[in-house]
Every structure is written in C-alpha cells, then in structure tokens.
Amino acid sequence: MAQLAPARARICRACDGFAAAVITTGTRHRDGTRVTLRVTCPACQGTGHTTPARRRETARV
Predict the structure, then answer these.
(1) Which of 11, 56, 59, 60 has its CA 20 to 30 A from that of 17?
(2) Cβ–Cβ under 8 Å, residues 58 and 52
(3) Tens digit of pLDDT per residue, the chain (61 long)?
(4) What's the domain range around 30?
(5) Does 61 fall in a domain?
(6) In the beta sheet, which residues pair with residue 40?
(7) Residue 36 maps to a domain
C-alpha cells in the first residue's frame, strides 16, 4: 500500500490558487488598449499558496 506524503504548499483558500486578477477600468490609452489594474490576493500575497498550519505541541502531565 502506498504511503501518502503530506502536501508542502497548500492552495490558498481565499483565491483558489488564482493569486492575481486583472480588472479593466473602462478607459483606454491613446493607442486603443484598455487601462487595467492588477490586484493580488491579500491572504497569500500573490503567491497562490499558503503554508500548512503548524501543529501545536500539548504539554504532557
């Protein structure tokens, strides 16, 4: 039976791995192209991945 390895980098829950979105403002440049804004995910800082949660160590009595 194969052993499952834990994932090192998990996909961000806030953006589902799509860390950046481009939004058009509706205006155009002089050459006819659209003005766009690039917005990154604040939860993962634009990487698309988050680090796994660290396990807490419990005190043994």
Answers:
(1) 56
(2) no
(3) 566 666 566 888 888 888 888 999 899 999 999 999 999 988 888 888 887 766 666 666 6
(4) 10-49
(5) no
(6) 20
(7) yes
Query: What CA–CA distances, in Å, run from 15 to 2, 6, 25, 37?
Result: 31, 21, 21, 17
CA distances from 30 to 10, 33, 35 (A): 42, 8, 10
The structure tokens listed for 36 are 């766009």
Name the DSSP letter for residue 19. Answer: -
Rounded CA-CA distance 23/27 in Å is 11
Is residue 57 in a domain? no
CA 40, CA 11: separation in Å to the nearest integer? 15
Angle among Cα 24, 28, 30 to the nearest 5 degrees reads: 150
Residue type, 41: C
Question: How many structural domains are present in the chain?
Answer: 1
**In this predicted structure, what is the pLDDT of residue 11?**
86
